[in-house]
Amino acid sequence: MTTTAQPAASAAQTSPLDEDALAGLAAAFDAALAADSRIEPRDWMPDAYRATLVRQMAQHAHSEIIGMQPEANWITRAPSLRRKAILMAKVQDEAGHGLYLYSAAETLGVDRDELLDKLHAGRQRYSSIFNYPTLTWADVGAIGWLVDGAAITNQVPLCRCSYGPYARAMVRICKEESFHQRQGYELLLALSRGTPAQHDMAQDAVNRWWWPSLMMFGPPDDESAHSAQSMAWKIKRHSNDELRQRFVDICVPQAEVLGLTLPDPDLRWNESRGAHDYGPIDWTEFQEVLRGNGPCNEQRLERRKAAHERGAWVREAATAYAAKHREEEA
Ligand code: FAQ
Predict the structure, then answer these.
(1) Does ligand 1 come within 6 angstroms of the Cβ of 128?
(2) Which ligand 1 atom is nearest residue 217's CA?
(3) What distance in angstroms lies between residue 224's CA and the mean position of ligand 1's atoms?
(4) Any ligand 1 atom below 6 A from CB of 141
(5) 191-248: pLDDT as tens digits
(6) 84 CB within 6 A, ligand 1
(7) Burial of 251 (C-beta count, 10 Å sphere; 0-12/13-18/19+)
(8) How far apart are CA 212 and CA 105, in angstroms?
(9) What InterPro entries has UniProt attached to this entry (predicted)?
(10) What is the pTM of this model?
(11) From the CB of residue 237, how many other CB atoms can be counted at a distance below 10 Å?
């Protein structure tokens, strides 16, 4: 969508628009969606579209930075220098993803500090998956294979999201996520082909991470409050259940190569659907995690708040440095 054809969002918000002008802007927005072009920050957009993007992008950004914690737990205990270097790079990548996403959210007129305050106050969500503990080294592999695998399945379609800055951030993020997924797969393969104890450790990790990974895609379609509208706005391109099914179908042959089983007795190929059937997901557990009652909710949020407080001096120094340079330039 061009940014010159219509008034910038800020202008539209400060000067009251008459009904005809507003109808024209809404029609231009609808036409841009219909033509599959991108909505850019200076374009007019409905308030609800903006609010939906802020909600999803903030939740996504928060997930990336809270998602550093479960794996960071293993950096000091990685079994070799190679594994440690890979894991440190991966955890750093997640921080970077958070930064791209907070920056992209800021193009919608929200402030990063405000989003972080809401996260810390429990007023914005982060992904349910990061409230589970990493009990053994194999969990690092299971997170890479399953959690990053689920993240990519969900995020590749977001590269075609109607909001330009979000879509562009996702292109870069997805490239890095596929490296993350591969490293997890390779780690699990090494364990699975190792000693019987290592194989059992890998199997145990997959048993614990499989069902929470399926929950990452969100509630079933008939209980998904936002899907219909988000799909109409082309923010989401597929429903939660469609992406979950795609993920299951990808994982089944990969598990076979790994020599590991997926912990679902109902998992089987359905010839007529051309897809795998899978067993019922425990949505009560999902709702409990969302309510703050998962195994690690409290610990994750406390660590995040402590890290934020400890980083205050860095933010102050960066602000002072920027102010000094502005003065010099002036
Ligand atoms: N966890 O109506 P829907 C990663 C909430 S990044 C917590 O279906 P929507 C990388 C939802 O917010 C992982 N809450 O919602 C990594 C809504 O609540 P509200 C994060 C959830 O937005 C890997 C309510 O339930 N990825 O893993 C969850 O249309 C390894 C109703 O749900 C993204 O954020 C959940 N799983 O669809 C990092 C991707 N699911 O606001 C470190 C972008 C739903 O009404 C290590 N987000 N809820 O109170 C999306 O694609 C969507 O937001 C969905 C949910 C699909 C997550």
Answers:
(1) yes
(2) 56
(3) 11
(4) no
(5) 999 999 999 999 999 999 999 999 999 999 999 999 999 999 999 999 999 999 999 9
(6) no
(7) buried
(8) 27
(9) Aromatic_CoA_ox/epox, Ferritin-like, Ferritin-like_SF, PaaA, PaaA_PaaC
(10) 0.94
(11) 16
